[in-house]
Amino acid sequence: MALEIDLSGRVALVTGASRGIGRALAEGLAQAGATVAVHYHRNREAAEALAARLGHGARAFGADLADVAACHRLFDDVLAAYGRLDVLVNNAGVAIGAELDASVETWQDAWERTMAVNLRAPELLCRLAIQQFLKQGGGRIINIASRAAFRGDTPEYMAYAASKGGLVALTRSIARSPKLGRAGIRAFVVAPGFTRTDMAQDFIDRYGPEIALGDIALERLTEPEDLAPIVVLLASGLADHATGCTIDVNAGSYVH
């Protein structure tokens, strides 16, 4: 049986959509017919250009996700523009390295910003989305975590791994609620490994390409586009009984 996915008439908010994984996810959702709210932090020009290419009424929305008030404004702006939200994709994230012997101020700053963007912003947006989903009869949350949530990371990136581990727990807590599940609310985790993005390139530049290529089972590094079909499937409702699951997209580098 051929699998055809049509997201026409559905609105999806993708955070961190101006580049990298977020851009690929936005493109995949739009290709399936969804209207995409393209969130960006600083790169307004790229976000607006992407929205113009996507069509289906896509628009760019700017917000610093480290700012609680900005998260609320982002959600309000998306609802004001479209009147509804069907899919929330929490993709935006930061990976801020901090050496164990760094100053207290440097260490705390790295942890606070990492947690603010990678965990607090998603929980705020999840809460707002859930409130909206309860009003309109359901919706889907797709949180982009990392293999680091399960296998950990280097000491310099403990904050990143911890934030992604928290994101997994957040997602599972939403998914296992009978109240939310029976109201049509689903929640999923997609956990990439090294993916060819600017964030990963910074890590590769620091530690060398062998750390990315040496432990994968496939012939090439994962590309952002490799995640898009999975997110489109989860957004469609065709995989709703997988709510609460984690889908690993890491070229076989970590299987749990």
List the topology elements.
Elements: E1 11-14, H1 20-31, E2 35-40, H2 44-54, E3 59-62, H3 68-82, E4 87-90, H4 104-136, E5 139-144, H5 148-151, H6 158-175, H7 178-181, E6 185-192, H8 198-207, H9 210-213, H10 228-236, E7 246-249
Helix pairs in contact: 1-10, 3-4, 4-6
Question: How would you sum up this structure in a few lines?
Answer:
The chain is an alpha/beta fold and 256 residues long. It has helices at 20-31, 44-54, 68-82, 104-136, 148-151, 158-175, 178-181, 198-207, 210-213, 228-236; strands at residues 11-14, 35-40, 59-62, 87-90, 139-144, 185-192, 246-249. Strands 3-2-1-4-5-6-7 form a seven-stranded parallel sheet, with helices on both faces.
Give an overview in words.
- This protein is of the alpha/beta class.
- The chain contains ten helices and seven strands.
- It is globular, with a radius of gyration of 17 Å.
- The mean pLDDT is 94.
Number of helices: 10
Strand line-up of the largest beta sheet:
3-2-1-4-5-6-7
Shape: globular
How much helicity do the residues have? 40-55%
How can the largest sheet be summarized? 7 strands, parallel
> How confident is the prediction overall: mean pLDDT?
94
Residue runs with pLDDT of under 50 for 5 or more positions: none
Cα end-to-end separation: 30 Å
Number of strands: 7
Oligomer class: single chain
Percent of residues in beta strands: 5-15%
Order of helices and strands: EHEHEHEHEHHHEHHHE
Structural class: alpha/beta
Q: In angstroms, what is the radius of gyration?
A: 17 Å
